[in-house]
Amino acid sequence: MTDAQLGTAGPAQIPFQPEGERPARPEALLVATNLVKSYGPVHAVQGVSFQCNKGEVLALVGENGAGKSTVAKMLAGAVAPTSGSIAVNGEPLISGSVKKSRQSGVRCAFQELALVADWTVAENLSLPDGAPHHRFSQKKSVAAAAELLGTLDLPHIDPRATVGSLSLADRQLVEIARALAGGPELLILDEASSALTPPGVAWLFQRIRELTAEGGSVIYVSHRLGEIAEIADRGAVLRDGKVAGEFVRGGWTDDELVSLMAGREAARFFPDPPPRITDDVALSVSNLKSDGVHGIGLSIGAGEILGVGGLQGHGQAELLRALFGAAPATADSWTIAGRTISGTTPVRSVRYGVGYVPEDRKKEGLALEMSVGENLLVPWFKAYQLGGRPLLSRERGWISGILDALSVRTRGPKEAAGSLSGGNQQKLVFGRWMDRSRTVILLHDPTRGIDVRAKQELYAAIVDLAKQGVGVLWFSTEVEELVHVCHRVVVLYQGAVIDELEGERLTGDAVVGAAMGLRAAA
Amino acid sequence: MTVSAAPPNNPSVETPQGKLRGRASIKQAASLVPRSVWPLLAFLVLFAVGGVIRPNLITVESLIGTATFAIILAIASFGQTIAVIQAGIDLSVPNTIGFSALSFLGLVGPLGPAGAFVGALATGAVIGFFNGIVVSKLGLTPIVTTIAMNGLLFGVILLVFNFSELTAIPEFIVAITSAKVSFLGLEMAAVLPLGLALMVVLQLLLSFTGWGRSLFVVGSAAEAARLGGLPVDRIRVGGYVLSGVLAAFAGIVIVGYYQQASATMGAGYLLSSVAAVVVGGASIFGGRGSVVGTVGGALVLAQVSTLVTVLNLGANIQQLIYGVIILVVISLYGRQGRG
What we know:
By secondary structure, chain A is of the alpha/beta class. Helix content of chain A is 33%, strand content 24%. In chain B, strand 1 (180-183) and strand 2 (186-189) form a beta hairpin.
């Protein structure tokens, strides 16, 4: 993504100014300049600059993986930027230390709750302010917590209750209360409203208004466009680790923001899905229920690539695990290749012709100490038959066929899987299901964190599988993959299908919009 | 991440590798040596050290004596090897040895030698089955489960067995353990070729069968094995059953060789069986190990024991040295794993 591409990508309707050209105004509280954060070869944030003025609410929006949380963590000091600088009140922020950030008046409520579940609310609230260095008094901390919760208008939370016994929403409130406790100059809320109920959100907005009235600032990271419309004075849209555009209160619509978040990429990068040649159904399920999946019905045709979209944590991972039998699940009806089943386990799923590429290739996909060849053969080990080298030589043809077809860069089937690069490891997890007469393949974001070439090789392999008549269920966090390579896309929202997109309606905006919980008119 | 940047990426990755070739090649050469060879080399070094201290130790008889002691330890550690490979541990080995030995002697009367042999192995299988079920189905950690099983067995041993009748050792057990046989022109106790034969059979099972390889996958990455469609629980239970059977077999062998049995006869094998497996190159975190390596590890420990005796240091020092060896070996392998 070059800047030139960005220029064409951003719709002109949204007024956005390149950050670098604007001089930092005197009331700027926080100025972030050219922040870069790389994790090995993955560039999570690549040159983000923005500023947050005194007394304003700045929204940071973007899709999963756009870099919002990484930026928030850098501001909070939880993550040290690879390069770039952050200044608060003109003083450079010492990065990489939450404590230093707190002393500069920057406090953060984290997305994944940073509370100790076995501790009481009072203990958790007293944790950040150097509790280990002072004498700790249970009585004093409870009194202080009760006072704090009282002033913050949260009388229903008992300071003596353990955090683990609270509801998720109340835990979130405690996390926010903890960030508010010291009267921060800059409060960072990283998806802090994700677990809150509407009254909870109203409470949060009340606190934000109090804070900004006193001259404090808030950086509000969220997916929820409705909330952003209500509370944000200005905002920045992040995409692929860069600022894709900015907006000011009242100057945007949902659609504009959504297109800015989804972006546009050159379509030639993606192969087209192959034409459907049969109407056979590979897998169908109705009212599937599992932990995090609340009654999903879907059907995958033979040779169809069915995409699964949605924001993280809306049931995609759980759906795939339930369909493979890795998590217990029930359904009103459930068929695989026309055969009715009442439930499944991974062992039976493999027998029924289902393959699964799990989320975490290192932990769930591969035995890293074992060889490339044996990792490919894992699902095909038979306890009472040969294994090891005799099996490798018997399956030599199949193994080298897979390694060639996916262009796996390895020194051979005997190399340890752990010494391959991430993309090549992913190909192994995928390759074990190829040419093995599968009915359905379930893919959990197989292209996450791998390089462009490996991505394209995987796209080709997925399209090839579909050509062979395999039904592909593909959960991807990259909207462009869903839009370009899938026949049809179901978007999950809160554990259920909120929309099904096909043909003309299958656009990036529609996928992102549905993921936000906006069901487009048909 | 741009399209244009991708193609030249690959060759440029290989250049820095070329610069490091000198150092890498030593590492590579070292990695070509099978893991199970290292303990054998260590044993030879220790054997030579013994010769320096006491030149009369370098004899074939001395070697066979140490090897015989080692092979009994190795037989007791084979079950442990299986448990460790699947990322478990079997701390019930000591009292499984005692329980099976005493059951064997108790059953010889009613069932005859062959029946007693099968019966004693069956007790090992049952013990292993319970270990496996508790670990895989109830999800308890192996270390807690098997140590509880060890304590439980000791209680059962004290309750059940009447020690006065445990004297007669059947002929055929003596014949396969302590009887002198001539093997490769050398006189040795029958247990040595027996143990080596068992080693070969088990190594074939581990290296060349689907079950054996599945055990390694489960030990290396249990969740990957499960999501790859392997019956992880069944493989685990099978592993513990085999571990129990092998410990029970060790109990019978020990009875045959030493011609005595007691409630605490297995106690010495708690630490030493783990030590032999770990020195033999197995990863205590699972997924790596071999019974050939375990024999090598047992040889090292046996030679240490010989040296301790020769230097007149006493049994307590021997335990201390075993403990030090385990710590050193685990930290060495840990370093290698990260490198």
